[in-house]
Q: What sequence folds into this?
């Protein structure tokens, strides 16, 4: 028997984030608890502790199967096929033959104060809940994500756990965003917040489940500009374009860059110079200002009964140039799905703005201004995450500053 929290892999960091403390014991393979202790959680480890991808609840075959099969239509084909096969096998009780993981606490202790699943069950109204937990490679920017199911296998919530400075800030930001989002015609369907709070040095948000029949977007290259524009306008009407010069946004770019210098970031001087160049070059360009989702990408979008569904709002912000989400969609699709470097991803973002920008009121000059401002905004986000303890995203830093400098040097 060993404690996976001592490991350096994905299972180690997930268990440290979820089951921290000397008054909590975690063991693989799971064994009966020691005298004076009781088991509060039991999971199947898929496929094994060294290569863990999932921690599956084993309360019943129904719950295990549901944890694999719910929302499977959102996943890419290979993962979908794997989860379907595992879920079908789980209905027969096959998960019992997988390696097991147990979570135990002292017998006299209230489990709601030590075991996050029982804490969330109480906060969500009481009743029994079971958790399915994804396992990702260690990264200080990753948050454990916990799907909660009742004994019938019905999903009851999707919990995000902030466990360090960077991830706690992201969970709090999403909590605030979800509380402020509008609804109604034209705006995407948004799963709403069920619970938010602090627990054992963790920041937690539980979002309601996605609709059961949600599907992946049929056209991942389509940025869905109508809904994107509704998000930018926060469900309201268009506002008059204003010059970038003197805007709170451009001032914020300069202040953020200066803050990075003060924090000791060795590359931040380049960001300060870029912010000044953006002001000088684009100060008289007029754009509409509004909100952005902040991570408008195909894997955060789906469809339900003909309506777009959008989730993961932790980067939402106001008072940015309309078109940021469009630039982000083009950039991140190329960077993540096509695995191209930042320079090529920037060209993909430029193509997206050229194709859909006119629908957002952006002419060629405004498209270029929006993209260059977006690149510096994205670098500042990358720096803030690194400064909060998550480390640099090497796909973006220092490449974004290189790309931006090249673009600003062009006539």
A:
């Amino acid at each position: 028997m060993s404690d996976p929290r001592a490991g350096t892999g994905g299972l180690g960091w997930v268990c440290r984030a979820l089951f921290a403390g000397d008054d909590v014991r975690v063991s693989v393979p799971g064994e009966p608890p020691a005298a004076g202790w009781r088991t509060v959680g039991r999971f199947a480890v898929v496929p094994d502790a060294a290569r863990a991808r999932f921690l599956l609840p084993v309360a019943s075959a129904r719950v295990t199967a549901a944890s694999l099969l719910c929302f499977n239509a959102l996943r890419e084909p290979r993962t979908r096929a794997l989860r379907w096969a595992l879920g079908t096998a789980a209905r027969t009780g096959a998960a019992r033959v997988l390696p097991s993981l147990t979570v135990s606490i002292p017998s006299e202790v209230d489990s709601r104060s030590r075991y996050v699943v029982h804490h969330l069950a109480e906060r969500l109204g009481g009743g029994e809940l079971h958790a399915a937990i994804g396992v990702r490679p260690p990264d200080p920017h990753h948050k454990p994500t916990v799907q909660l199911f009742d004994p019938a296998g019905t999903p009851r919530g999707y919990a995000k756990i902030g466990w360090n400075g960077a991830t706690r800030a992201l969970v709090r930001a999403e909590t605030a965003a979800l509380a402020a989002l509008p609804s109604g015609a034209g705006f995407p369907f948004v799963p709403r917040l069920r619970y938010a709070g602090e627990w054992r040095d963790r920041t937690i948000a539980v979002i309601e489940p996605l609709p059961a029949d949600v599907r992946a977007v049929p056209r991942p290259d389509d940025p869905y500009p109508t809904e994107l524009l509704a998000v930018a306008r926060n469900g309201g009407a268009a506002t008059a374009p204003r010059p970038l010069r003197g805007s709170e946004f451009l001032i914020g770019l300069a202040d953020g860059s200066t803050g990075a210098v003060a924090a000791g970031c060795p590359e931040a001087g380049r960001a300060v110079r870029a912010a000044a160049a953006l002001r000088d070059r684009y100060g008289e360009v007029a754009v509409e200002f509004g909100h952005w989702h902040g991570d408008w990408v195909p894997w955060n979008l789906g469809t339900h009964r003909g309506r777009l569904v959008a989730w993961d709002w932790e980067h939402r912000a106001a008072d940015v140039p309309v078109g940021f989400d469009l630039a982000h969609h083009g950039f991140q699709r190329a960077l993540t799905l096509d695995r191209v470097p930042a320079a090529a991803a920037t060209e993909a973002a430029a193509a997206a703005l050229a194709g859909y920008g006119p629908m957002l009121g952006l002419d060629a000059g405004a498209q270029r201004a929006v993209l260059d401002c977006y690149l510096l905004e994205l670098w500042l986000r990358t720096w803030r995450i690194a400064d909060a303890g998550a480390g640099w995203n090497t796909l973006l830093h220092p490449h974004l500053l290189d790309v931006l400098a090249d673009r600003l040097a062009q006539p």
The longest strand covers residues 37-46. The chain has two domains: 4-163, 215-409. Residues 173 and 372 are 25 Å apart (CA to CA).
